[in-house]
Structure to design on (783 residues):
């Protein structure tokens, strides 16, 4: 059914977003500070997980926006504002990265000068893995992302007022430039922040592995927010079953993609059986980590695969909401599994600590605040976009 | 020929949106036995027609699971039960290595079963005819029109009422469709079968001709027919007709040292170890020993290797008998083999054989160290530590 006419009146995001967001954020912040006081190492590792998670959501959202422009997708136009709000995380990374750089000595083995001196492998990697270059990279990558974020988001919101079609054309060009840059920066980001935790280890597919998780996390976040807002009546007549089905299908595709990449990485290392590669998986098979490793397969692949397999499930808002929360948790578990076994006291097995729960909590509050801040006085539909009507009339 | 039986009444429309609306109205009017024909798939049409979800998915699921099970079971049976083989040190049931194969077989069986199931259950193979074939209606809906047919088998079917109903939907045209009652429309008709047979004959005949005849004709044989003599091939040049010649009496291959003690029960008279135990020599010996000897004799010569139990166990190299062997005797065993042990002469050259002998001596000395050896080793350690 064609919706040739539509009347959009600007409606503020639910007030609860800011209220609950602030409460959760402040509580989380206090607990996080206590955590830093109690157990600095555990806290900073947890903070690294949170930071990676925020990169996943923020940068992944920017990638989704760029993908929409480059692919000429119609269906995602009506809710493009949600990934735009979420990629507002990117400029904040400038501040968020600072604690990690201050405590880099607790995180990264390769920052210990005396260890590097004795170690032939680390000595060989020193031209890349040294703290000066590391900091330069960290800030340079964030700067590049922020530049593209500002261009794409500013053009998009300017279009609401001017209805200028050339802005879409400009954004397509910048998106096309952004995507290869995204591929390179996300690969090196994953190498810097996650792979270099174990500096002796290397895997050439690691960047792709992290990318697969990134897309799942950002897509799940966008799905969750869109379905939530639709239920609140924000997107009521506009987001149809066909849109929801597309969300479900994309999530399903990327769940499979993640499993494919993760298995490829495991199979090659397992089959070649080279000690310099296998030890990374052996660490994750040490003691209770084996349970976490198996849990990751179930949580990140088997359960979402089973839930999303059938066609009706892909457009069922309740199931979509459930599976997006589930997949966000799965990505968190994935990063936890990548990061935590590198901690000195966790090498031999998982130990429970309340600190692990504080940082996801802080993250939820933070993302809620980001949404309410960037979503203020903005149209939830990009009303000036020339593709909007086609997006609203989207049929599979 | 008279087209006497009424199949149904058809109506043509000109847009996909219209046909969805039409399908909805038809279903709401209580018709169940009707069909929509469109030039391309239209999403949401099955919902508008109030169709039940297709059962084809179950065939896919069942056969897909069967495929996974068959593949996994077959690999388990061949690799772990019937013919267990060590492949690059992996366990006999190496699940990660089986997963790609399992995945492929699952997909293969699922797709084949889906296509075959669709043809047999839904297209009613070997039936190949449908009353709508060769009608003007079919021509239109495979071009740019969207059609609806209400079939006469519907329980609410009354010709005039149906026509009236269709007229109310504002179609481009309405048409009654008739078909012949008895038509020979099976796929298994003789003409079709004969054609199938002829095609099979021609395909296999051509394949045979190309692979077995054509490739051996000039000029296609230029790669295989060459003037040089190939092994095991006849030759017209020699009077006995053999292409392969025995070497002239007394010929020795390059680098070959004839072994004079073959079959000699007491070879040590002729064989003296020409190599001293040096670090370099031991290095060669260790590497060769670990490659060729250790799979049976074990890394330390205890006869306790990972192949234990699958072959007759070789005796320990640390027995009194083996220790009392002269160097030449061990060399002799390496070249000639002994009991189940085959000759290793092709794999080790003269120096390497003696190096292995020396390495075995090292192992024997290490396993049966005397008091003075231990004291010597301790002294060495102290010296190293003080350095």
């Amino acid at each position: 059914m064609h919706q040739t006419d539509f009347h959009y009146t600007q409606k503020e995001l639910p007030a609860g977003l800011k209220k609950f967001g602030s409460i959760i954020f402040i509580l989380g912040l206090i607990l996080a500070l206590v955590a830093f006081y109690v157990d600095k190492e555990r806290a900073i590792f947890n903070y690294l997980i949170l930071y990676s998670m925020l990169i996943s959501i923020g940068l992944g959202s920017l990638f989704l926006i760029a993908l929409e422009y480059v692919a000429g997708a119609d269906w995602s136009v009506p809710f493009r504002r949600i990934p735009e709000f979420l990629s507002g995380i990117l400029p904040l990374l400038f501040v968020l990265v600072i604690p990690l750089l201050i405590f880099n000595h607790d995180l990264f083995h390769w920052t210990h000068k005396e260890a590097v001196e004795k170690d032939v492998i680390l000595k060989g990697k020193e031209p890349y893995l040294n703290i000066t270059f590391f900091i330069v990279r960290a800030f340079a990558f964030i700067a590049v992302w922020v530049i593209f974020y500002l261009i794409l988001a500013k053009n998009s919101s300017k279009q609401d007022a001017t209805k200028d079609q050339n802005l879409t054309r400009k954004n397509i060009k910048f998106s096309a430039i952004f995507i290869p840059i995204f591929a390179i920066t996300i690969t090196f980001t994953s190498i810097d922040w996650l792979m270099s935790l174990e500096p002796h280890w290397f895997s050439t597919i690691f960047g792709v592995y992290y990318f697969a998780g990134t897309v799942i996390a950002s897509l799940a976040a966008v799905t969750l927010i869109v379905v939530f807002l639709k239920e609140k009546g924000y997107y009521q007549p506009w987001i149809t079953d066909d849109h929801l089905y597309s969300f479900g299908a994309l999530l399903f595709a990327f769940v499979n993609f993640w499993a494919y990449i993760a298995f490829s990485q495991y199979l090659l290392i397992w089959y070649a059986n080279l000690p310099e590669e296998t030890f990374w998986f052996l660490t994750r098979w040490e003691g209770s980590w084996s349970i976490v490793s198996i849990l990751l397969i179930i949580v990140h692949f088997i359960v979402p695969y089973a839930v999303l397999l059938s066609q009706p499930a892909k457009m069922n808002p309740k199931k979509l909401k459930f599976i997006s929360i589930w997949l966000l948790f799965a990505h968190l578990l994935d990063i936890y599994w990548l990061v935590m076994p590198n901690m000195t006291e966790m090498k031999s097995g998982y130990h429970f600590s309340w600190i692990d729960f504080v940082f996801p909590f802080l993250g939820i509050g933070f993302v809620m605040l980001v949404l309410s801040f960037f979503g203020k006085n903005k149209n939830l539909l990009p009303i000036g976009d020339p593709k909007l009507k086609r997006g609203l009339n989207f049929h599979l | 020929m008279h087209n006497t039986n009424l199949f149904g009444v058809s109506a043509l429309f000109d847009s996909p949106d219209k046909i969805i609306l039409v399908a909805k109205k038809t279903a709401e009017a209580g018709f169940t036995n009707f069909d929509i024909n469109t030039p391309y798939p239209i999403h949401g049409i099955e919902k508008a027609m109030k169709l039940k979800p297709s059962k084809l998915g179950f065939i896919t699921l069942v056969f897909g699971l069967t495929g996974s099970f068959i593949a996994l079971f077959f690999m388990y049976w061949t690799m772990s039960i019937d013919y267990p083989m060590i492949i690059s040190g992996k366990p006999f049931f190496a699940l990660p290595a089986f997963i790609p194969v399992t995945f492929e077989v699952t997909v293969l069986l699922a797709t084949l079963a889906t296509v075959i199931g669709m043809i047999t259950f839904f297209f009613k193979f070997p039936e190949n005819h449908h009353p709508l074939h060769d009608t003007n209606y079919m021509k239109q809906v495979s071009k740019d029109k969207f059609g609806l047919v209400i079939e006469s088998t519907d329980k609410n079917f009354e010709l005039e009422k149906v026509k009236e109903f269709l007229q109310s939907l504002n179609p481009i045209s309405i048409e009654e469709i008739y078909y012949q009652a008895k038509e020979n429309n099976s796929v298994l008709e003789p003409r079709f079968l004969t054609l199938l047979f002829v095609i099979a004959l021609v395909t296999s005949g051509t394949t045979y001709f190309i692979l077995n005849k054509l490739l051996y004709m000039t000029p296609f044989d230029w790669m295989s027919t060459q003037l040089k003599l190939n092994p095991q091939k006849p030759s017209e040049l020699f009077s006995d007709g053999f292409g392969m010649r025995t070497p002239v009496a007394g010929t020795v291959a390059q680098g070959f040292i004839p072994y004079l003690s073959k079959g000699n029960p007491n070879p040590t008279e002729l064989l003296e170890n020409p190599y001293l135990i040096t670090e370099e020599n031991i290095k060669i010996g260790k590497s060769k020993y670990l490659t060729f000897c250790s799979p049976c004799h074990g890394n330390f010569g205890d006869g306790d290797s990972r192949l234990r139990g699958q072959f007759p166990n070789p005796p320990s190299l640390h027995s009194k008998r083996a220790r009392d062997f002269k160097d030449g005797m061990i060399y002799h065993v390496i070249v000639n083999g002994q009991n189940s042990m085959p000759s290793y002469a092709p794999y080790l050259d003269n120096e390497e054989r003696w190096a292995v002998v020396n390495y075995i001596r090292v192992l024997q000395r290490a396993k049966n160290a005397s008091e003075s050896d231990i004291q010597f080793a301790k002294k060495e350690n102290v010296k190293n530590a003080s350095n």
